[in-house]
Amino acid sequence: MNAIDKIPVTVLTGYLGAGKTTLLNRILTEDHGKRYAVIVNEFGDVGIDNDLIVDADEEVFEMNNGCICCTVRGDLIRIIDGLMKRRNRFDAILVETTGLADPAPVAQTFFVDEDVQSKTKLDAIVTVVDAKHLMGEIDTAHEAQEQLAFADIILLNKIDLVSEQELAEVEARIRRINPTAVIRKSERCQVPLDQVIGRNAFDLDRVLELEPDFLEHFHDHEHDDHVSSFSLTSDAPLSPERFFPWIQGVAQHFGMDMLRMKGIIAFEGDDDRYVMQGVHMLLEGNHQRPWKPDETRLTRVVFIGRNLPRAIIENGFARCIAGEKSPKG
Description:
Layout: E1 7-13, H1 20-29, E2 36-41, H2 49-52, E3 59-63, H3 73-84, E4 92-96, H4 103-112, H5 114-119, E5 120-130, H6 134-137, H7 142-149, E6 153-157, H8 164-177, E7 182-185, H9 204-210, E8 227-234, H10 240-254, E9 258-265, E10 272-279, E11 282-290, E12 299-306, H11 310-318
Parallel strand pairs: 1-4, 1-5, 2-3, 2-4, 5-6, 6-7
Antiparallel strand pairs: 8-12, 9-10, 9-12, 10-11
């Protein structure tokens, strides 16, 4: 297959809570004339990112049985193989990795698997960076360092949450890791999309300088054993009067260890889905859309963190269910 006929692939990566899904939703909703197939990977046992992606005509595939750079690389190859059988339905592929993924083995897939390599081309690794929290994470999270090192394009996001001096320090820290990547700055990932997709920016020679055996061996990746995830679900509606003080208390008490929180909430007497996301002590939520008539009104909340007290959080969540007895004290 000629290079011009190959399907371009953009890998969206970035540490937990940086804004990858926000960027993905922009790509899927803005009028740019292209159709995308989307592959979403999650770290956890209950998939939620697929439901955080806005309704679109694109085909979305979800993998939540492991990290895309570890156990599910075979799934990635199989999904791409299946996509290529109906390649007339899309123009490009977007792969959104879990925030704990090392992008190197993901990129490696498009070179070491002959069938994938013959049909696709890696357009760029786009790394989204949380300007507010990077400095507190970079020295303890090797995944964040790997994501920066392998980036072709870096979207320095949430610049509205830091001062000019802090922003300059973050940018300098990024440059120490990756002096050649293009850096774009944004609030809520608001950047012209032609600056981050369709750039033909992946540079194999630079990657081989960074990792000489990139094409020869499967890349080993080990997660921090202290980072884990758990999910809370309820098919009974929650009380907003209890939920909001509870989740604010969780963020206040455990925020330093809460790397990421994502939730789709079914509130009592509310016909709209409520989406809430959190990074450390920062929480944000809003109504996303009405619940569909045939849709199960199920609440799902996912926590990813370091040594989070699961039993305490589960107990507090259970008290948020409408109709349950109010907590004492």
